[in-house]
Amino acid sequence: MIGLEERVAFLEGRAVEQSNVLAGVRDSMRSLERSVERLELRFDGLERRFDGLELRFDGLERRFDGFERSVSSRFDAMDAKMSRQFTWLSGMLLTGLLGMVGALIAR
Asked: Which tens digit of pLDDT belongs to each residue from 65-80?
């Protein structure tokens, strides 16, 4: 049979081992906590950068909207000008045709 002192010594050894394991777990938790804090800081930085990019894209979108309106108004103006020119050209061709028909009839 094992004596009382041996049992107490065994239990003290186990308690020391458990406390060492617990200290290791605490250290690991602190290290994990620091890593998570660093990641949070990095994510905060990334979030700020994405917010800046979003503002830049909003600015680009406004510029493209303005460009689109400008091009659209130019095409509308060109379409109206071509319609007027077509009307004048059709009128001249019709006048020329009537002139030739009139000349043939007069002969």
From this structure: 888 899 999 999 999 9
